[in-house]
Amino acid sequence: MRFVRTIDLETTGTRPPAHAVCEIGWQDVVEVDGRWEIGGEHGSMLIDPERPIPAVTQAVHHITDEDVKGAPKWRDVAKDILRPGEGCIALAAHRVSFESRFCTPELTGGMSWICTWKTALRCFPDSPSFSNQVLKYWRMPEGLDRERALPVHRAYPDAYTSALHLRDMLNMKGPSDLMTWTELPGKLPRVPRGDLKGKKWEELRDVQLIPFLTDRDPDIRYSAEIEAARREDGPPLKVRRPEQGSLL
């Protein structure tokens, strides 16, 4: 039986090794007779981060130093959760760029990833936003157990919510496409910031699109490049590259 393990982490901050995991949750999505379903294993575990949890972080997930006192260490349990054995074709998370900072290849055994944020950009481009929670309420995925999906910003409820989105995208596109899209920058359906925020790329005039082709954000740049390529049958876009400074 093939399955994808969806995970979510709660941490003391965003940058290891200065910060560490204080909770992990997981929910498997399994293939049954050619369809993907919520099933298999699920659970959560508090983790001793071996350092104080800052108050600003406690205010997000409400996990306190007292809660993790005596909990297992990340290095002692991570491999058992992140390497679930035969049949697991990938790990998934809503922002793989975050989770993979803590779930390193050494811990995952080099497992492939599916980023449900990147894949949602392509599968649900009309969503007003692409956070896990906005997708949940905008889509109201079939079978959603609202109590199971709460509280937000705790590892299992968030993993469960991500798994619902993943289930539907696996049934729409299959794992190969989702893994391929994960390896690419995010394909944003709309301009994310600035005076043109909210505009679809195809609505921009050439002169408006050109600055985005050299944007420092790889997701913005990639999305603009896709639109520029779509227009390649028309007059070429003249991209002004940043000038190289002189050493003299």
TrEMBL record:
InterPro entries per UniProt = Ribonucl_H, RNaseH-like_sf, RNaseH_sf
Instruction: Please give the Pfam families that the UniProt record associates with this protein.
Output: RNase_T
In this chain, the stretch annotated as Disordered covers 225-248
Q: Which GO terms describe its molecular function?
A: exonuclease activity
The leader peptide range reads none
Q: Which residues form the Exonuclease domain?
A: 3-175
Q: Which domain of life is it from?
A: Bacteria
Please name the SUPFAM superfamilies in this protein's record. Answer: Ribonuclease H-like
Q: Which UniProt keywords apply?
A: Exonuclease, Hydrolase, Nuclease
Entry-linked Gene3D superfamilies: Ribonuclease H-like superfamily/Ribonuclease H (3.30.420.10)
Q: Which PANTHER family match?
A: DNA POLYMERASE III SUBUNIT EPSILON
Listed name of the protein: Exonuclease domain-containing protein
What is the originating organism of this protein? Answer: Parvularcula lutaonensis
